[in-house]
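Researcher: Here's a chain I'd like modeled. Treat it as a single chain, no partners, no ligands.
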Amino acid sequence: MYSRLLIVVSLLSAGCAFDGADSSSWASAPHTTSRCEVTGTAALPGAEAASGTITGGDTGATGSWLHDSPVGGVILATPDFITCRINGSKLADVEGTAEVDGVPGYTYRIHVQDRGTPGGTVIHEGTPVVETLTATRSYRHHHARWTDAVLPITEDMARVTIPAELPVTVGAPGTGRADLVFTRADTGDTTRCRYRGNGRRDRGGDRYVLTRCVGRSGSPEVVAGDEVDVTALTIHVQSGDEHSSGCRGGETTVTLDLDVLPLSIEPSQPDYYEIRVFSPDGTDYFDAAGNLEGGDLTITEF
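Model: Modeled as a single isolated chain. Structure tokens:
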């Protein structure tokens, strides 16, 4: 027989282990899997407490779950299967058989929503948009003028894909240079991606091609095609073909359609936990549900 004291001690111990970061992440594409695990402890209003680990695979689930209730008694649950889903958050559903105060024949359902580590933060994805960025180098009257493109960031940060090329829509790049400069959200440092014109002998061409991205020493390497979360991004045309007959009024203009995913950072909400227990005759016996007042439930995909 499991005692209430053991569960309370387990919850208090888990409460000392909270940290300030979300330690798990899944791919954003919604999907369902049985190859996953739910583990942890939960304290609900009314002195309801639970703890355990349930691990799923291709042929079912293993482990055990203990729910201690002043109303429903001590419920020892054995899983038959577990289903985990990712759809903006991490969800798990478990079903199986249970004993209540040592009496077998009961069945149960458990639903868990893992909303991140207590005290941490969660990144929420907004609606993807396409931003058209235009940057120009002007050569009028022998006075160089620059108009940089600045990415509008409407949330805390934005996820972008580093382009391999910057298309030239007015004039020509020659063998000149253009820069894409951004501030990384994860490290806070500034990275400069350098592009060279695909012309010959300072003349012609129709695009700037990425040569290298340089950031702070020790920062993650960035190459074309990488997805990067940024808090600022600009495009600057440093030099181009000043004499190309294609230059309208003497300028080189880059126009880039950039796919942008707005991202907002919010404090993580308490995990959600729900259990329903059914008597041997199939009628409702007991249920408890709510946001956690303590503990942490973690869902992991294998």
